[in-house]
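Thread: "does anyone have the structure for this chain?"

Original post by V.I.:
We have the sequence but no experimental structure in hand. Need at least a predicted one for the grant figures.
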Amino acid sequence: MSLQIYNTFSGKKEPFKPLVEDRVRMYVCGPTVYNRVHIGNARPVVVFDTLYRLLKTLYKDVAYARNITDIDDKIMKAARENGEDIAALTARYAQAYFEDMAALNNLEPDITPYATQHLPEMIAMIESLIEKGHAYAAEGHVLFAVESMEDYGKLSKRSLDDMLAGARVEVAPYKKYAGDFVLWKPSSDDEPGWDSPWGRGRPGWHLECSAMIKKHLGDTIDIHGGGRDLTFPHHENERAQSCCANGTDFVRYWMHNGYVNIEGEKMSKSLGNFRMVNDLLEQYPGEVLRFALLSAHYRSELNFSADLLDQAWRTLDGLYGALRDTQEVTAAEVDLEGSAFLAALYDDLNTPIAISELHQLAKELNKAEGAGKAVLKGKLLAAGAMLGILQMDAETWFKQSRGGDELSEDEIESLIAERQQSKLDKNYARADEIREELKARGVVLEDSREGTKWRRE
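Reply from O.Q.:
Generated one for you, C-alpha cells below.
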C-alpha cells in the first residue's frame, strides 16, 4: 500500500512522493486571531492533524507548520472596537485558539510562526519580486503584477478575465492592472506599521505565508493544506509570490477540505449561523467534535448539526464500551500495516471507511476470547490513536458530564452504596427505586460479579 493524495493543482488523485526521500514538509494556513474560532476553522486543523499522524508513521522526518496571522485589518478593527492593544488582543485569541484545538485532541505543529515576527523575510521577498519584474511600487504600495506570471490562475483553474469577473477587486489608480494584488500597503500614524524601502506600512495578507514557508520549510514544500475557500485568492497568490520569487515550484501537493454547512445551510456571517468551538465544548467533549468532523471525507461538504454530534457521541460510546468491557486485558503491541483501516487512510485520507473499520474491530473485540482479545484491543487503540480518538480512559469517558441537571460523581457513588446496602438489608424495593431514580437522571447501572459500574447516557 502507498499513500494517495488528491492534488487540487492536477485535479486528480496521485501517489504521494516527497521531494526528499523520507522527509516531508507540510504547511497549513492557521487563523487570523481577532475572535474565537468557529467549527469551520477547526475542520482543516483536525483533517491535517490526522494526516500528520499518518505521515509520522511513514516517514522519519516530518515537519508540520501552521501559522498565526497576528496583523490584519480585521484585527485592527477589533482592537479599536475593544479599546485594546493589538498585541494583547492577538495574544489572547491565539491562546484561546491553542486551547480549543488541544481540546479536539490535535497535536501541536512542529512550527507555529507568527506573521509579525517575519517582517524582514517579507520585505526581502518583495524586493526579490520587484527585482525580477513581478512587482512594482506605486504611491506607498507594492503590488504583484499578475500578468507577469504566465500560468497565474492555474491552481484555481481560472483565467484572469474570470477572476476579475468573479472577485471583488479594489480598482485603484496606482494599479497597472485591476487584478494586481497588494504585497505592501502604507499605514497611517494610528495604525501598526514597519519601516520599509517603500515607507512605513504593513504586509498584504497573502505575503506572510510565502515568507514563513520559505524561512521554515524551504523554497519547495511537499504539502500545503487549508479550506477550499482559500484556493482563490489566497493560495493562488501565495503560489504566484513564491514561484516567482524563488524561481522554483512552490508546492508539490495542494490539499483542500470542503465547507462546513450548518443544518443544511452554508455557514456565513450574513446568516449568523456560526458555531464557535468554545461554545460547542460546553455541550460536547472535544473528542465528539473531532469524530463528527472526521465522519465525512475531508474533500466533501459536511453538514454539521446536533443530530451529527449526538450520533458521534453514541458511536464513541460503542467504541469505548468495547474497551471498557476488556479493561482486564492488556493491549498487545500491534502493527497496523496491511490492515483495511490503514488502506482507507492511504486512499486520500478516507476517514469514513477508516471509521467503519473501527466498528468492525470493536465488534470482533466484543466477541473475542482468549489471546485474541489482546491483539484486537491493541489494534482498536492503535487505529483510534491514528484518528486522534479513544484517547481517554474508558471508565472516565462514561462518567464525564453530558450537560443538563446532572448528579455529581459523589452523589452517584453514594446512591450506589445505598443501593448495595438496601440489597444486603433485603430491601429490594428501595434498591430498585434507586436504580430507576438514577436512570431517570441519565445514569445507567451495570451489575456484574466484579461489582456495579455506571455510565452516563
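V.I.: this helps a lot. The chain has a mean pLDDT of 93.
O.Q.: and The chain has three domains: 18-261, 319-394, 401-456.
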